[in-house]
User: What shape does this take?
Amino acid sequence: MTDFTDDELALDPHFADQFQQGFRPACQLYLISPPMIDAGFVDQLAAALNGGPVVAFQLRIKGMDEDAIAQLAAPLQALCAEREVAFIVNDSVALAQRLGADGVHLGQDDGDAREARKILGPKVQIGVTCHDSRHLAMEAGEDGADYVAFGAFYPTTTKDTLHRAEPSILGWWTTLFELPCVAIGGITPDNAAPLVAAGADFLAVSGAVWNHPQGPGAGVAAFADVLTQARNGAPAPL
Assistant: This one.
């Protein structure tokens, strides 16, 4: 097998500029929970959803057993259903099945999309973390994922990250593939525009919303102008 240097494997940052871009729906907001929540979090989620359009909410809780997570999930899932927001479970296919969630998001160590599809059926949305890897993203697409997630694009304190993606991977992906892509990692209203312009179909955000000094509703609202100004188009469901 031929060995390639990092420079030889690097993606041309202007790759997407060589092609005429087809229509893609406008970029939308994908909200991720804080890593730890309590029973009162449903009020914070309601406030966030009051702030502006959110297409999906991912429940991502670490260090808690699934019975406790399921108990916390019930009012959040009901709120999402009421607001027509997709309710996504992080990491656990079993928990997604147990809750009847709208989707599951899988890290690279959480199993593959093909196996998840066998368990969850054709209607559940399956997303896969692909870090900064074109190869992992193409594998996820071949395995039947409904979306791929690239990142982290910026420094983040929400979770430990070992990979740093460049915006060019979003342009490469959306030029060659119809499957939606999610940008994740340290995204704020101040740094989101280049990711939307590069081709992100969804922005996955967490800390910028929950830690906003005026509350989560203001955190969501702060993204609205970025999303409407950077790209135009009709929204599509996740």
About this structure: The mean pLDDT is 89. The first strand starts at residue 28 and ends at 32.
